[in-house]
Design brief:
The protein is an alpha+beta fold and 237 residues long. It has a single domain, classed as Gcn5-related N-acetyltransferase (GNAT) (Aminopeptidase, 3-Layer(aba) Sandwich). The chain is built from ten helices and eight strands. The strands form two sheets. Strands 1-2-3-4-5 form a five-stranded antiparallel β-sheet, with helices on both faces. The longest helix is centred in the N-terminal third of the chain and has 15 residues. It is globular and about 50 Å long.
Length: 237
């Protein structure tokens, strides 16, 4: 694994013992592990994925994993690790990030034009939300950092690890020459963390309103998992 950045190290108490954690750009040799974490936990827990049971929709799941792999290979994702008692390291969180222009590049690659129905429902909602505000006009930037998901594995939730990962985007933006990070946060937990990290709303809509505006995108029982979706930004001075 590549050398970690000590400036992004923090400590948390885990099962009565203080453990060292750190956030860094996702190393090459950990990319497959990051995809496994998303397949196992993000697809199971994210509200829209959960609503349409994406985990059992093989066609949509395979498409999403393929998109995720291309996004990760933009080499701008973040990962959080813990140092274990035996000196080994374990990945505990992943945030798949990329420059906003990469989305179009990925979608123009062979194999991405035909989107399965389940995945298309999610993409259509995300695209609708994003187009409600013209980011270049609102924030005076042509390019910015964006993301397709942040996940903390269950054993390490409740420790504000997601907040540390979101805060590390400042470092990532500096490395990429960007001054803005923009993300659509779909779950109440991630929305609270985004607020703590200093993110502000560009667009905030209830899922009920979204389904009225986009009746073709159906998310059964979505209100069991989340009430609102928020497109949020932070400007790094």
């Amino acid at each position: 694994m590549e050398k970690k950045d000590s400036n992004l190290t923090f400590h948390r108490e885990v099962k009565g013992a203080v453990k060292k954690f750190w956030v860094q750009i996702l190393p090459e040799d950990q990319k497959k592990k990051a995809v496994e974490i998303f397949r196992k936990y993000f697809v199971r827990d994210e509200p829209m994925c959960k609503s349409i049971n994406l985990i059992d929709d093989k066609e949509s799941l395979d498409y999403y994993m393929k998109f995720l792999w291309c996004a990760i290979n933009q080499n701008s994702s973040l990962a959080c690790f813990i140092e274990l008692d035996d000196g080994q390291e374990e990945m505990v969180a992943v945030n798949v990030c990329y420059r906003n222009t990469a989305y179009k590049e990925i979608m123009e690659m062979p194999g991405f034009r035909d989107i399965p129905e389940g995945m298309n429902n999610i993409f259509e909602i995300l695209k609708y939300i994003i187009t409600q505000k013209e980011i270049p006009k609102e924030l005076e930037v042509a390019e910015y950092l964006t993301s397709i998901g942040l996940i903390v594995i269950p054993e390490y939730r409740g420790l504000n690890i997601g907040l540390q990962v979101l805060s590390a985007r400042k470092m990532l933006c500096e490395k990429m020459g960007l001054k803005v990070s923009v993300t659509t946060f779909t779950a109440p937990e991630s929305q609270r963390l985004a607020e703590k990290a200093g993110y502000k709303d560009l667009v905030s809509l209830t899922y009920d309103d979204l389904q009225k505006m986009k009746p073709s995108s159906i998310f059964p029982d979505i209100n069991k998992y989340a009430k609102r979706v928020r497109h949020m930004y932070i400007l790094y001075e």
